[in-house]
Amino acid sequence: MNTTTVQPLDAGRLLPGPNQDYRLIAAPVELLDEVGSTNDELASRLTARREIDHLTALLTEHQVSGKGRRERVWTAPKYSSAVVSFVVRSEQGGSRLPPDSLHWVTQMLALAGRAAIRETTGLPATLKWPNDLLVHGRKVAGILARVVPTGTQRLDVVVGIGINVNIDAADLPVETATSLRTEAGQDVDRTELLIRLICEFRAYANGFFAAGGDPSRSVGKKPSLLDEVRAALDTLGRRVRVELVDPGSNFTGLARTIDDDGSLMVLRDDGMVETVSVGDVVHLRPENGTWADAAESESP
């Protein structure tokens, strides 16, 4: 039986207007009742050269054709998730992000999602390389970005996140998935979660521009983006299986760190160090036990 809580978002608090939450004042936010994919919708607007403000946030109550990496389908019941995509314009106020820095947008949204989950629920969310969020070892959110050419020499980015919020464990598709409701033992305010997420992502994006798109550069008293990602990655120090486009090239080993360009450095079982820039990573469960056992051993 599906016991997902049916509670619409508080549009007044999210959208521009007299009741918009003070933390979002001047933030361009749009809410659709249903859409195929928030990422696809924003990308199509950019491709059509429609005017879209930098850091526009597109939310939906129901995403019916969401996709993850390698075109995997991602769906969830209406009113159960926190789904939002952002437009990141690569030129702002005379500043321009280097093209080779744009992939860091995924990590910025991952950090923003991690912070929003922790602030809203107190749950110990962590990052899994390259684009997932975990709680107690199980996937609670996925992130996907795409670069969109919007001019002769200009590239912009659309990046989106889908967080499993008020979904019961029995309604989750796989053993390795979880939801905030499952982990917290109670319903979670999706509106508050999204407000915090939007604010956090805007702060990360503004800081990245201030750093000139350099992930190793600190701005003000905050650590660099690179240092924050390294500290938040649950993947580091774990035995992993790296799955590449060519299955014959898959391998296992120990995830050691991420390079300055965001690539994962893995000490293979054969003793070689491999740099992985594109691929999926599976955290290997203990040889004896279950994912639940692993989650308990990982809790602080």
Distance between the termini: 33 Å
Query: Which sequence of strands runs across the widest sheet?
Result: 1-2-5-11-10-9-8
Strand content: 25-35%
From the helix content, strand content and strand pairing, which structural class follows?
Answer: alpha+beta
Number of helices: 7
Average pLDDT confidence is: 90
Helix content: 10-25%
Q: Main β-sheet: number of strands, strand sense, barrel status?
A: 7 strands, mixed
Note the topology.
Layout: H1 11-14, E1 29-32, H2 38-47, E2 57-60, E3 66-67, E4 73-74, E5 81-88, E6 91-92, E7 95-96, H3 104-121, E8 126-128, E9 132-135, E10 138-151, E11 154-164, H4 180-184, H5 190-210, H6 225-232, E12 239-243, E13 251-258, E14 264-268, E15 273-276, E16 280-283, H7 291-298
Parallel strand pairs: 1-2
Antiparallel strand pairs: 2-5, 3-4, 5-11, 6-7, 8-9, 9-10, 10-11, 12-13, 12-16, 13-14, 14-15
Structure notes:
With 300 residues, this protein is of the alpha+beta class. The chain has seven helices and 16 strands. A seven-stranded mixed β-sheet has the order 1-2-5-11-10-9-8, with helices on both faces. A five-stranded antiparallel β-sheet has the order 15-14-13-12-16, with no helix packed on it. A hairpin with a 2-residue loop joins strand 9 (132-135) and strand 10. Helix 3 packs antiparallel against helix 5 (190-210). Residues 288-300 have low confidence and may be disordered.
